[in-house]
Amino acid sequence: MQLGLVGLGRMGGNMAARLRAAGHQVVGFDRDPHVSEVAGLPELVAALVPPRIVWVMVPAEVTDATVDEVAGLLAPGDLIIDGGNSHFSLDRPRAERLNARGIGYLDVGVSGGIWGREEGYALMVGGEAAHVARAQPIFDALKPAGEYGFVHAGPVGAGHYAKMVHNGIEYALMQAYAEGYELLRASEYVTNVPAVIKSWRSGTVVRSWLLDLLDQALDEDPELAGLRGYAEDTGEGRWTVDEAVRLAVPVHAISAALFARFTSRQDDSPAMKAVAALRNQFGGHAVKRD
Amino acid sequence: MQLGLVGLGRMGGNMAARLRAAGHQVVGFDRDPHVSEVAGLPELVAALVPPRIVWVMVPAEVTDATVDEVAGLLAPGDLIIDGGNSHFSLDRPRAERLNARGIGYLDVGVSGGIWGREEGYALMVGGEAAHVARAQPIFDALKPAGEYGFVHAGPVGAGHYAKMVHNGIEYALMQAYAEGYELLRASEYVTNVPAVIKSWRSGTVVRSWLLDLLDQALDEDPELAGLRGYAEDTGEGRWTVDEAVRLAVPVHAISAALFARFTSRQDDSPAMKAVAALRNQFGGHAVKRD
Asked: What is the pTM for the complete model shown?
């Protein structure tokens, strides 16, 4: 099968390699001319035999512009797939714009990160069943072996929605291990914390891929001494909490994990300055001053 | 190797079966005469050749009494292992009582539940290295195959401590999946929630044994319609939060998961009655009355 792929970064580049290894023909464009395989989007589209499928794998902030630019070069019957981390609310308007020109649209949440090239990418797909069926050979090549790792989650938007919730869960899972790790470190009882984490990889209720990764990190740096306790967020945790607020769903652990990241990025806490000030005001409690 | 096993309940019974399958000789006592293999603890001790090892696997609330009763029948050089869910703070006093009589003591946190008989039990051990070495053949038979699933975590108390933190993490992991599940259910985007959960079992960042179990539960009851949203706790989540308070470790997600269980068990919320009353007082906002 033939696929146009726009965006050959860390994700797109590895996906192209996995698709080619499965025997598919990939024409790749990247705005970095050193990476791109064609001169531009017109050349990419010209290299594909209609009806075309073009997979867009670019940063969320340029996805809408890229999709519209690609669409301007396509013809009725073609199909655009957005595999980036778009907010799900953009998918339906995007699909409607494309449908008005006879172009199909699928939104795909992609998980797997740098491990995906070898282990496969988990795919969560939103859109019409006929479009999903057309792209299924591509999905089958990208997904992990076995019965899991692919789902047609619902209509347009459902793929990115499922991926967003996946990432929200991921925030709280990471926070769970992190809190347990810190408690083990703080206690005087357990003398070999990395060995405890390692032992949990088999037979326990908490075994998981994230736990395996934590063990690997501790193998490389048993005290995590080379790291600062500073964690960015890429937006999907916030979107999950936004959605929980919209739908009035109590997400105690997910929101706690998100807020813990915000705290981690503060040099000092205005809120805790206020707490210190109030303790000093009403009780004369000592404060620390800069 | 020969082992006395006190407590042949769901855990002890399966552990005896796994030990025997590995070729060890197990003499089992249970206070239920229909289950017990000997008439009493004296008969159990008499059936073992010194130096003896007796593994106590009884509910936490009767462990101290059982250990002391067993110790009264043992001789210097014997070893008692507590594999139950004792609070770690009881281990050191217990070990000191036993050591005064020349009897060794190991505390072992055991994970694996009803799956352990086939897949093996993850073991977290606290105590002296010489005692651990003596019992190692027993541990090797109980643990899962492979390099993980066993750790000598530190001195007496470290085994139960590690198991406690394991369970605290487990609370927050379960809460993470549960919140994501509820959000997917609440949204109008994803139309096939169980299929999304199932797809996550491979290739995703959130893949884990707990996720596999959630998928199995949804296979059996796709809406979880037969269940009430009511969750007990067996104490280790509370102990983890107690320890976090003692050591001033911020455990946002673990405490949120514990408190979510408390909320789940309330028929009504006194706190939210108070919120409703205050909203009514200052703003004349409508309230719901019984």
From this structure: 0.95
